[in-house]
Amino acid sequence: MDKINWKQKLTSRKLWLAVAGLIVGVLALFGVNADMAQQVSGVIMALGSVVAYIVGEGLVDAAAAGSDSSDTGGK
């Protein structure tokens, strides 16, 4: 069984839309008003944006750390 690529999953807009849809659906089931459901959905989408940014920056930093910037080309 292959490992799950969590970096790709956490930066997926589809994942965050699915999570927001699930939460809003549960809130509707319990009779929460539409304004509260909209606010919760907005918070979830904002969280998704933050996670995507953090993971993206982490990938950039990891790539920069992997390249040897002290190499002078052998001269």
Structural class: mainly alpha
* Average of pLDDT: 82
**General form:** elongated
DSSP summary, beta strand count: 0
Segments where pLDDT lies below 50 for 5+ residues?
none
Major sheet summary line: none
Helix count, DSSP H or I runs of 4 or more residues: 3
Spell out the helices and strands N to C: HHH
Percent of residues in helices comes to over 70%
Distance between the termini: 47 Å
Radius of gyration: 19 Å
Percent of sequence in beta strands: under 5%
What does this structure look like?
There is one protein chain. The protein has helices at 6-10, 13-29, 34-66. Helix 2 runs antiparallel to helix 3. With 75 residues, the chain is mainly α. It is elongated. The chain has a domain at 33-62. The longest helix has 33 residues, at 34-66.
How would you briefly describe this protein structure?
The chain is an all-alpha fold. It is 73% helix and 0% strand. The chain has a domain at 33-62.
Could you give the topology of this structure?
Elements: H1 6-10, H2 13-29, H3 34-66
Helix pairs in contact: 2-3
Summary tags:
73% helix, 75 residues
